[in-house]
Amino acid sequence: MRRAVIVATLCALVVPAQAFAHATLERTSPGFQQRVSVSPGTVTLRFDQYIEPLPHAVRLYSTRRELSVPEIRIKGRELAARLPRLRAGGYTVRWHALSGDGHVVSGVFTFGVRAPAPQPTQAFGASGPTRTEDVVRWLYFLSLALLVGGLGFRLLVARRPLPNRFFAITGFGAFATLNVGVAAFLLRAEDALQLPFGRLLYGDLSPMTRTRFGAVFIAMTLGFAAVAALVFLAWLSDRDVFLWPAFLLGLGFVSGLSLSGHSAADAGSSWKSELADWAHLSAACLWIGGLVQLAFVVWPLLPDARRTTFLAFSRLATVCVGVLLLAGVYLAILRLPDVSDLWSTGYGRILLVKSALVALAFAWGGLHKLRAVPAVARDSAVPRLRASIAGESMVGMIVLLVAAFLVNAKPPA
User: By three-state DSSP, how is residue 117 classified?
Assistant: First the structure.
C-alpha cells in the first residue's frame, strides 16, 4: 500500500496537471505609449485566452477628465471600445475583464494623438509619490547604507576580519534592499493602475516594466540579489575574496537611482547630473554605513582596533563629506537656478531643511575631527565617544529621511 502511494505521488509530480492561468494582455491598438497622427476610431485589447465582459470594461481619460465610451464589445479573446473623436493630447485607457480562472485582470496604458503619450506613472488618476512611498524610499536609502557602506567600511577602513555582527548588519541591509525595492515598485504600480492591493496581484504590470523606473527596478533587483549571494558566500566560506565584487557591484547598482530620478529625466539633466547624483548617494552610503559599523561593531566588540579604525574612518569620512558637498551644491544650482526658489517652492523648502540637517551632521563630524581625532591619535580616552558616533549616524539617517521626501518631490520647471 505504501509503495502504491509513493508511485502515485511520483506520477502526480511527473505528469503536470492542467493549469488555469489568468488572462494576459498580448497587445493593444493603439500600442503602448504610441503617438498616432489621427484620432483612432476604436481601442482594441487582445488577450491570450477568452474573457468575459464586465461593466465599464474600458474607461478613457484625457489629461483632465473621463470621456464617454459609446460602445464596448467582447468577441472571443478581443475587447474593443468605440471612441469619440479625440483632440490632440495624451490619453489614458484603464481596462478590466474577467478571465477564465475567475480572477479580474486589470491594467492601464497610454497613447497620444498628435502629442506625446504620458508615462504610466503619470496616467490620469495617478497621484504621484505618497507619504508611504516617501517612507519606503527612506528605508531603501537606509538599506543601501547598511549594505554598501558596511562593505566599504570593512574593505577600505577596517581591512581585517570583523565579528559576525558585521555580516548580520550587512546581510540585513541586503535582505532589506531587495524587499523594500519590491515594495517600492508595487506601491508605484498600485498608484499607476489605481487598484487595491488584492487586485494588483492580477494586474498587468508590463506597462511599468517598460518605463525607465521599471527597467532600473529589474536591473537593481537582479544586481543586489547577486550582491546578497556574494555576502552570504563570504560569510559561509570566511573568505574576503567575495567581498570585493559584492562591494563594487553594490556601488555600481546604486547608480540605478540616479539613472531613473530627477538627474536623468528632468529638463537640463545630462551624464554630469547623473554622475553627481550617484557620487552624492554613494558618499552618503559610505559615510552613514561606516558610522553604524564603527559604533555598533568595532567599538563594543574590538577595543584593540578602535584607534586604527577610527583614524582610518576619519580620513574616509573627510573625502565623503567633500564629495557630498560638491555634488550637492552642483545639483542644487542645476535644479534651482533662482535663489528665490529655495523659499518659494516646495522642493526648495525641503532642500533647505535637508541643508540644515547636513550642516548639523558636518558640524558634528567636524567636532570629531578637531577634538576626538587628535585625542585618539595620542591614545587618550575620549569619554562618550561611542555615543557621539552613534548620534552622528542618527543625524545622517534623518538626513536620508528628508532626502527621500526631496527625491519624490518635483523640482520647479
Answer: coil
pLDDT of residue 21: 62
Cell output for 144: 543601501
Distance CA 278, CA 257 (A): 8
Tens of pLDDT, residue by residue over 265-307, are 676 778 888 899 999 999 999 999 999 999 999 989 998 888 8
Contacts of 175 (CB under 8 A, 6+ apart): 228
- CA angle (342, 343, 347) in 5-degree steps: 60
For 8-53, the DSSP string reads: HHHHHHHSPPPP-PPP-EEEEESPTTEEESS--SEEEEEESS-EE-
CA separation for the pair 236, 230 (Å, rounded): 10
pLDDT at 203: 82
356-393 core/surface letters (b: 16 or more CB in 10 A; e: else): ebbeebbebbeebbeebbeebeeeeebeebbebbbebb
Instruction: Count other Cβ atoms within 10 Å, centred on residue 321.
Output: 19
In which element (H, E) is residue 183 found? Answer: helix 164-193
- For residue 380, CA distances in Å to 306, 346, 372, 377, 394 come to 12, 47, 9, 7, 25
Cα 43 to Cα 46: distance, rounded to the nearest angstrom: 10
**91, 59, 97: which is closest to 78 by C-alpha?**
97
CA distances from 210 to 36, 109, 120, 205 (A): 19, 11, 9, 9
Judged against a pLDDT cut of 50, whether residue 132 lies above it is answered with: yes
* Cβ proximity of 60 and 91 under 8 Å: yes
Q: What is the dihedral of CA 178, 182, 187, 188, to 10 degrees?
A: 100
Q: What are phi and psi of 33, to 5 degrees?
A: 55, 30
pTM above 0.85, yes or no: no
